[in-house]
Amino acid sequence: MRRLGREDYAVDAVTAAKMLVGAWLCRRMDDGGVVRRRITETEAYCGEEDTACHAHKGRTARTDVMYSAGGCAYVYLCYGMHEMLNVVTGAEGRPEAVLIRGVEGAEGPGRLTKFLKIDRSHNREDLVSSNRLWIEADGTKVKFTSSPRIGIAYASKRDQKRKWRFTICRKKVS
DNA sequence: AAAGTGATCATG
DNA sequence: ATGATCACTTTG
User: Fold this and answer.
1) CA atom of A56 to C1′ atom of B11, Å
2) Is residue A143 helix, strand or coil?
3) How many angstroms is C1' of C6 away from CA of A154?
4) pLDDT 10s digits, A3-56
5) Which nucleotides of B are covered by protein (CB under 7 A)?
6) Cα-based distances in Å from A66 to A2, A97, A106, A139, A159
7) Which are the contacts of A107, defined by CB distance < 8 A and separation ≥ 6?
């Protein structure tokens, strides 16, 4: 098990999204116990030119964090009730991020944050140095499938078609 | 199928 | 200040 470092996050969001499928999302709970779950699904959001990306409309109070160097968390509230966890990637000044859409046992972007008690207090948390939220990788490669991103009807047709959603292949049950 | 919920951003 | 919109989940 190796904790991901700054250089691991210094890649474009699509590359990072593929790398993060099968990696371990780690959370130290308030009672001190560490919960580790394998990431099962991710989505890439790639810069101001990606009309599905929150940074599409430029840098604002909310999207500011996406412009920082890769490795920190971007957490925001959706529909007034769901906290969404993203991992910022790429170079400083380039707004890219990977939405974590599910971990084993808590599939769904709103479900995993609820399960791991991740909320907006984790916004801007540095996953490289934080002792309450980080990501680890074992050496193993996992298979995954690519498909269009979810819930982005507001984006251009072209961006809706991009297959920037990555889902781990379910282990075959013999 | 549709409600529920509140931050956020563009408009005035 | 007001209003539309939303990287969703649950319930019927």
Assistant:
1) 19
2) coil
3) 10
4) 999 999 999 999 999 999 999 999 999 999 999 999 999 999 999 999 999 999
5) 4-10
6) 24, 7, 25, 28, 19
7) A40, A41, A101
Claim: this prediction has a pTM higher than 0.90: yes
Give me the CA A152–C1' B1 separation in Å, rounded.
Answer: 20
What is the residue whose two structure tokens read 């474009």? Answer: A12
- Token pair of A6 as six digits: 């700054």
Quickly give A26 CA vs C5 C1' distance in Å.
32
Q: Identify the CA nearest to A27 among candidates A123, A126, A131.
A: A131
Q: H helices within A21-168, ranges in order?
A: 109-115, 157-161
Closest nucleotide C1' to the C-alpha of A78: C6
pLDDT tens profile A82-112? 999 999 999 999 999 999 999 999 999 999 9
CA–CA separation, A21 and A43 (whole Å) = 10
Is any atom of strand B within 7 angstroms of residue A60's beta carbon?
yes
Q: Which residues of A114-144 are buried (b: 16+ CB within 10 A; e: fewer)?
A: ebbebeeebbebbbbebeebbbebeeeebeb
